[in-house]
Amino acid sequence: MPRRLSRAESKAKTRARILEAARAVFEREGYHGASLERIAATAGFTKGAVYSTFESKADVMLALLEGRAEWMKADLAEMLAAAPTVEAFVAAIARHNAARVAAERDWLAASNEFVIVVGRDEKLRPRYAALHEVALSALANSLSAWTRRRGNRLAISPRRAATAVIALHKGLVLEGMISSANPSEELFVEAQLALLRGVFADREREAGE
């Protein structure tokens, strides 16, 4: 006879099912087109069951993004451990991001819709900012670790460099969403490496003066 789930286990299972359904609905209908009713129906629950787990549609999206932030942090650590140079590390990130654009176009469209909502909602902004901080800090710490190994310093702080890397990535993602063809993996790599080399080149020119 199967073991009966504890209350906590049952709640966790329900939450996971709702999040799985929510991602499918967001990808299919976009953030604005999605509703808690549709998410509940897709998960096989009542709307009340969803509301007992999440406060709102925005709360569901933030929960999905929180899970992805931790997953991305783990991926960065894995790529950092495997890369022999900072250039190889940045190239690995760029290839990873290019693959995501090709494979997750619908999800990225929905999450970008949500960013616009966050920009206009003062209550949502702090929680989203905390998520952004996870990715930003992970990348900044990785760049800092590599510059120490290289025996050099960036022309700007690792945090500013990480901000530029993330901003460039987001711009390429948006370009891929509105253009007839996704930006190639080669473009992601070339653009990120050009940014990185520029940051190091400024420091090297400064040292030579």
Detailed description of the structure:
There is one protein chain. The protein is mostly helical and 209 residues long. Mean pLDDT is 85; it is low at 203-209. Helices cover 81% and strands 0% of the residues. The longest helix has 27 residues, at 7-33. The protein has nine helices and no strands.
Q: How would you sum up this structure in a few lines?
A:
It contains nine helices and no strands. By secondary structure, it is mostly helical.
Q: Could you name the ranges where pLDDT drops below 50 across 5 or more consecutive residues?
A: 203-209
Estimated structural class: mainly alpha
Span between termini: 77 Å
Estimate the helix proportion, in percent. over 70%
How many alpha or pi helices? 9
Radius of gyration: 20 Å
Would you tell me the overall average pLDDT?
85
- What characteristic shape results from the CA principal axes? globular
SS elements, strand count: 0
- Order of helix and strand elements from N to C terminus: HHHHHHHHH
Our estimate of the beta-strand percent is under 5%
Largest sheet entry: none
Which descriptors apply to this entry?
209 residues, mainly alpha, single chain
Outline the fold blueprint:
Layout: H1 7-33, H2 36-43, H3 47-51, H4 57-82, H5 86-103, H6 105-119, H7 125-150, H8 158-178, H9 185-208
